[in-house]
Amino acid sequence: MNFLKIIMTMKCLKAGDRSLANVIAHEIAHSWTGNLVTNSNFEHFWLNEGFTVFTERKIAGLIEGKTSRHFSAINGWKDLKEEVCKLNLLSLILLL
Model's pTM, two decimal places? Predict the structure, then answer.
């Protein structure tokens, strides 16, 4: 993502407080890691998002503190487990 897109994203997400700072941190993290971690196909898309979310949480930890970063990581892990369970159930249904 180039700098202009980041500026446009910031203008579109302006809320007047820090409630959307994590979105901005995520997009900035994409600009930092996007060129370093590029997936060869959709199967490896998790690499790009994984490094981006990791970097986003490090930024959020600097802004909001370690407790917030850890809480976000715990929620992310819970969400990931739920999605994997859904995908496993879906694959079982598709096999029937």
Answer: 0.63
